[in-house]
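Handover notes (outgoing to incoming on-call)

Open items:
1. Regulatory protein RecX: sequence verified, structure written out, both below. Nothing else pending on this one.
2. Nothing else urgent.
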Amino acid sequence: MSQSKFPKLLDYERLKQEFGTSSTEHTASQDTTNDSDATIETIPPQNIRLTGSRLRSYAFAVLTRKEFSKAELIEKLAVYAASREEVINLVNELSEQNYQSDQRVADIVLSSQKRKGKGPQRIKLALKNKKINSDLIQEELKAIDWVEQAYQLKIKKFGNTVEKDPKLKAKQIRFLQYRGFDMEVIMKVINKKEDDE
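Regulatory protein RecX structure tokens:
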């Protein structure tokens, strides 16, 4: 296509001369948003330290794309902020106003890990990695039938026969332990027959 069909809408050279380097920094930060998914969060240029309303805007941009725990959000914002103290105050404020919620993150982690066939120990580990207290979902964890969860996982992987061979039993135990199930639950599962209630 010829350039005559698409005339230049802005004369960037004239803007650079008129406004100095700030316009080039602005266009550079805009360009990063279109590069890839890794830079989709409108990452500010390295030499600019965010404060006040700019930091708040960046925090909202981050939170609109994904839920973050309080600790994760502080670390993410601190990279671009001028003051860690300001970041902590902002995140506390966002948490009070329910824009950020550790409870929501904990619920998301629980449902996601449960869907992937993970047991309570792996779920607690996932929460610990996000620096979230597992007490937030203690009631939900107690309400889940972990024996049934582990049994369905065992059937999917090994079938519904009760193994007599110690090596095959050990393999099932290791598999369910790795998935985060407690030993008490595992022993019930590997000895459970299909017609057992």
